[in-house]
Design a protein that fits this description.
alpha/beta, about 45% helix, binds pyridoxine-5'-phosphate, TIM Barrel, single chain
């Protein structure tokens, strides 16, 4: 069975809507862990629009499963990662004006700088995952620069408006997952996955872990974190 890491950024989004003290993403993470997730993910953005340094540092102390830090490949973020020591770093592209991460890190363009970041983090004992589009060239470069894992961007598939686009996008995901698996990298998948789109992944056993945020936190607002997480875990179990 594939694992589930829950991204709690959107608990912080709700807090930041009023710039207040609640809801606390740390509480969200603890409840998600009690419901059975395999890991907690946060994205510390350059502009700190949702997750703050304080959140990351407290999460490092309280998360008992696995803490994944999503971050841009910048000197500032590498310094924070070396200090905080998350269990995994997932490198993502970052644009200030984007609503959410819009696509994978382009390794054709950024190969050298990302390779340097991968080396620095690994030399300090932190395994590195790279968030990339489901494109064989991107997967091959991730392998060349020694990434421990890739996270395949599933957003194009999840957001596709026509069945033709959906089918094409999913077939790209299948091919990318199989190639990454063959190259002996860990295979994660994430972005835009909800309680409906998760069902498409049935039988794609190359995927080790799903990274899901928005849909679970949205459901948690209505039915509670425990039920929201358990419902997703049940769907993953059926894959
Ligand atoms: N994986 C990565 C690399 C992301 O940037 C995000 C969004 O923060 C997610 C997974 C989770 O996406 P969603 O919130 O759409 O489930």
């Amino acid at each position: 069975m594939a694992g589930l890491s829950v991204n709690v950024d959107h608990v912080a989004t709700l807090r930041e809507a009023r710039k207040g003290r609640y809801p606390d993403p740390v509480s969200g993470a603890i409840l998600a862990e009690l419901a059975g997730v395999d890991g907690i993910v946060v994205h510390l953005r350059e502009d700190r629009r949702h997750i703050k340094d304080r959140d990351l540092r407290i999460l490092r102390k309280v998360v008992q499963t696995k803490l994944t830090l999503e971050m841009a490949s910048t000197n500032e973020m590498v310094g924070i990662a070396l200090d905080v020591q998350p269990d995994v770093v997932t490198l993502v592209p970052e644009k200030r004006e984007e609503l959410t991460t819009e696509g994978g890190l382009d390794l054709i363009v950024h190969k050298d700088t990302v390779a340097e970041t991968v080396g620095t983090l690994q030399d300090n004992g932190i395994p590195v995952c790279i968030f990339i589009d489901p494109d064989p060239d991107q997967i091959k470069i991730a392998h060349q620069i020694n990434a421990n894992m890739v996270e395949i961007h599933t957003g194009i598939f999840c957001d596709a408006k026509t069945s033709k686009k959906r089918d094409q996008a999913f077939s790209n995901i299948v091919n990318a997952a199989k190639l990454a698996f063959k190259l002996r990298m860990g295979v994660n998948a994430g972005h835009g996955i909800c309680y409906t789109t998760i069902k498409a992944f049935k039988g794609l056993n190359e995927i080790d872990e799903f990274s899901i945020g928005h849909s679970i936190i949205s459901r948690a607002v209505l039915v509670g974190m425990d039920r929201a997480v358990r419902e997703m875990l049940t769907l993953i179990k059926e894959l």
